[in-house]
Amino acid sequence: MSLENQIQNQEKQSTKVFGSNLCESILLAADFLDQVRQGSSLTEALAKAPSENRSAAQSLSFEALRYKPKIIEALKQFINKAIDPEVEDILLIAISTLFKDSMNQYAAHTLVNETVNAAQKSIRTRYAKGLINAVLRRVIENPQALEITVEDAQYPAWWVKNLKKSYPQTFQPILETYLKPAKMFLRVNSRKSDVQTYLKKLALAEIETIEIPLEWQQLAPCCIALKNSVPVNKLPGFMEGEVSVQDLGAQMAAGLLAPKRSERYLDACAAPGGKASHLLELEDIDLDVLEISPDRMVRVEEGFKRLQLSAHLIIGDACDSSTWAKGKLYDAILADVPCSATGIIRRHPDILYLRRGSDIAELQQLQRKIVGELWQSLKPGGRMLYVTCSILPQEGESQIEWFLEHLKDALRLESLGQLLPNDWHDGFYYGMLEKKK
Ligand SMILES: C[S@@+](CC[C@H](N)C(=O)[O-])C[C@H]1O[C@@H](n2cnc3c(N)ncnc32)[C@H](O)[C@@H]1O
C-alpha cells in the first residue's frame, strides 16, 4: 500500500468512534440536543434513536451539555453576534471534546473535518459551516480559552440562584463536582452472590475495580465501584441477576430501611425499581410496588424478571390512596418522591436545561401531597423513609420540618440527611419519620 493510501486509511480509521462514524455521531448528538431544547430528556431521545452511532452520540451529547456553561462563556471570545441554536449545538459537541477530562478525544484535523462535514449535511447548519470551521480551529489553537471558572460559566439562571442561596459558601465545589463523570457502581445480589465472590469474577473478566472508602462501604455493603464503565452485557452473570447497576448513594436506602422478614412494605414511587429490588434481595418481605407510569412500570417488571424477584406491582397515583390502598397498613413506606433531580446532574446533564425555577415550588407541593396521603397507610409505630435525589433544601430538610409540623403523629428518627455529591456518590436526601403509637 502506498504511503498516501496508508495515511488515507488511518484518517478513515480515526473517524471511527466505538465502531461508529464521527460525522454521523455528531449529527445524531445534535439531534439529541435539539430534542432537549424541545423539552425531551436525553434518556427519551436515546430510547428513540437508531442503534447505529447511538453510544457515541450519547457520550458526545452528554459532554456537550456538561461543558455547555463553560463553552458558552468561552465562545464570547470568538463570536460577537448571536448564533442559531443548531449552530451552537454543533459547536458545543465539537468543543466539549477539547476539554482535557473529556472521554471523547480526537486528532484535531479529524475533529475539524468531521464537524464541518456534519454541519454541511444538515440544512439547518450548512450555511454556517465556514463559521463553525473558523471558530473550532481558533479554539483548538487557543486551548486556554476554555479555562473558564465555574463562577464565570453561563449556568441557567434558576440553577445558580438556587444553588447560591442554598450553599453560599460551597456552591463552587458543587459545580466542579458536576463537571466530572460519575463512576459506575454495581450492587451484588445477596441472594445469588457476595462482594468477595463477585470481585473474583470481575478480576477473571479483566474488569478493574476500585476500593470504596470504609465510611461509604458500610452504608452500602453490597456495592462495588468499577474503575471504568463497561456495557452491562460484559458483566459476569448480569443476565442471570447476579448484579445490578446502581449508584452508591441510592444503595443506602435499603440499608436504612433494614427490612425485616414478613413485614409489609410499600415502595410508593418505584420505577425503575432499583431500591425495591434491593429490598427484596435483602429479605423476604411482603412488598407492594406502586408507580404512576405504566411505561416505567415495565422497567420494574423487566428488572424483577432478570433478578428473579417478585412483588405486588400496582399502577396508581400515590396522591390518591383510595384507588390502591384498600385499607392496608404498612410497617414501612419508601417515599422516593419525584424531585428536581439536582443531585444526579452528573449522570443527567440535561436536567439543567429541562427544569425551570418554578418547578421547585411545584415539586415541593407534590412531595407534600404524596407524603401526606401515604402517611394514612402507615401503621402506628411504622417508619417512612423520605428520599430525593435533590440537593435543594426546599426538597429535603425543609420538607421534613414541614412534615413534622403538619403530620401531628410524626416523629423524626436519625437518618443521613443531605448527602452532597462527591467522588463517591450522587446527591441524595434521606429523612426518616416514625408514626407515633
Ligand atoms: C425518583 S423516581 C423513583 C426511583 C426508584 N425508587 C428507584 O430506586 O429505582 C420517582 C418515580 O415516581 C414516579 N411517580 C411520580 N409521581 C408519582 C405519583 N403521584 N404516584 C406514584 N408514582 C409517582 C415517577 O414516575 C418515577 O418513576
Describe the structure.
Helix content is about 45%, strand content about 15%. The protein has about 425 residues and is α/β, with parallel strands linked by helices. The strands form three sheets. It has a seven-stranded mixed β-sheet with strand order 9-8-7-10-11-13-12, sandwiched between helices. Strands 4-5-3-6 form a four-stranded antiparallel β-sheet, with helices on one face. S-adenosylmethionine binds near residues 291, 317, 319 and 336. S-adenosylmethionine binds near residues 272, 273 and 291.
Concise description?
With 437 residues, this protein is of the alpha/beta class. It has helices at residues 3-14, 22-37, 42-48, 54-75, 85-96, 108-121, 129-141, 157-166, 171-177, 195-204, 214-217, 252-257, 274-282, 294-307, 351-354, 358-375, 397-406; strands spanning 16-17, 20-21, 185-188, 209-210, 223-226, 243-245, 264-267, 286-291, 312-315, 330-336, 378-388, 410-419, 428-435. It starts with a helix and ends with a strand.
Major sheet size, sense and barrel closure: 7 strands, mixed
Bound molecules: S-adenosylmethionine
| Apparent shape | globular
Overall average pLDDT: 94
> How many E strands?
13
| Lateral strand order in the biggest sheet | 9-8-7-10-11-13-12
As for the CATH topology of the largest domain, it is Rossmann fold
The percentage of residues in β strands lies in 15-25%
Number of domains: 3
Q: How many H/I helices? A: 17
